[in-house]
Amino acid sequence: MNTVFTKLKPYAPLFIRLGLAAVFLLFGYHKLSEPEQARAEIQLLLDMGLGSAAALNYYVGLFEMIVGISFIVGWGIKYTAPLATLSLLGILGAILRSGVTIDPNLYRDLGLIGAALSLWLTGAGPLSLDERKKAPTDALQV
């Protein structure tokens, strides 16, 4: 059993990437396909006073789709993971500002923040464009 964990350990960033990608793609798809269903998020955006909630919701949906795709292919993780973390921290802050403290979304967002930070620290891992981009330069330095 230990050998299975040893063999799979290098793939931990891949599993984190795919899990985060699924969440961000679903969030983004939800915002883009059914914007009226994202009433709570639109209300949070309105409360922040950042402008047109419908436009912001659309751009946040696009951002989430781009982040999800980036996580799937493992490209630009050192930039995408901190951006995803900041996005999640913004949502977390908005939830906390609204006075809600016992909300399942709060706990989910804390877990996603931890996963995004972990991915930022570990890198994209195997089976990623970032890793593939590093491979030729590593071979030249040998």
Q: What is the mean pLDDT? A: 84
The number of distinct helices, counting runs of at least 4 residues, comes to 7
Helix content: over 70%
The number of domains: 1
Low-confidence stretches: none
Report strand %: under 5%
Q: What structural class do helix, strand and pairing data support?
A: mainly alpha
Compute the CA-based radius of gyration: 17 Å
Largest sheet: none
Distance between the termini: 34 Å
Quantity of strands, as a count: 0
Shape field: elongated
SSE order, one letter for each helix or strand: HHHHHHH
Give an overview of the whole structure:
This protein has one domain. The protein is 79% helix and 0% strand. Helix 2 runs antiparallel to helix 4 and helix 5 runs antiparallel to helix 6. The longest helix has 22 residues. 25% of the residues are buried.
